[in-house]
């Protein structure tokens, strides 16, 4: 099965969620952090989510503390920060590693399916974004500095 639907992850509130529950939706999967220069992208991600959620689009946020410890909080602190500071309502998950030996299998798969610049599979910073089509296949990787608004046309083409 060459798609993301075989993976599971814990929601930010601790429930196990199958990626299969997002079957037939366009997804933007993002490794996030609360104390990063790119953290304001949360508002743009939320804007995309609100604009297209009724058409079958979802943003999935995965906090990660692997890059200069920019996500030091626990799940409750992260959830509170995202909601209060940026009004985040899209699904957030428990903190994960996105690279290395303990990387979450979903992120290992995403990185293999959509290598970055010069074919590098490593995820190198917070707010790396992966666009997934309705069949659960990884379509494209976007660098942290790519603003969510710049991805909008790609999202619309998959809806």
From TrEMBL:
GO molecular function terms here? glutathione peroxidase activity
Similarity comment: family membership? Belongs to the glutathione peroxidase family.
Q: Which InterPro entries match?
A: Glutathione_peroxidase, GPX_AS, GPX_CS, Thioredoxin-like_sf, Thioredoxin_domain
Would the keyword Protein biosynthesis turn up in this protein's UniProt record?
A: no
Species source reads Peribacillus deserti
In this chain the Thioredoxin domain maps to: 1-159
- Name of the protein in question: Glutathione peroxidase
Q: Which CDD domains match?
A: GSH_Peroxidase (cd00340)
Q: Which SUPFAM superfamilies match?
A: Thioredoxin-like (SSF52833)
Q: Which UniProt keywords apply?
A: Oxidoreductase, Peroxidase
């Amino acid at each position: 099965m060459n798609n993301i639907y075989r993976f599971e992850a814990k929601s930010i509130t601790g429930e196990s969620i199958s990626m299969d529950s997002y079957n037939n939706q366009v997804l933007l999967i993002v490794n996030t952090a609360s104390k990063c220069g790119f953290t304001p992208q949360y508002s743009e991600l939320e804007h995309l989510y609100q604009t297209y959620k009724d058409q079958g689009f979802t943003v999935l946020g995965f906090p990660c503390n692997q890059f200069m410890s920019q996500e030091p909080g626990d799940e409750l602190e992260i959830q509170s920060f995202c909601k209060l500071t940026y009004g985040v309502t899209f699904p957030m998950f428990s903190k994960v590693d996105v690279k290395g030996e303990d990387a979450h299998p979903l992120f290992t798969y995403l990185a293999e399916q959509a290598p970055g610049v010069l074919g590098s599979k490593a995820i190198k910073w917070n707010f790396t974004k992966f666009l997934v089509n309705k069949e659960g296949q990884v379509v494209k990787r976007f660098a942290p500095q790519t603003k969510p608004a710049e991805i909008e046309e790609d999202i619309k083409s998959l809806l």
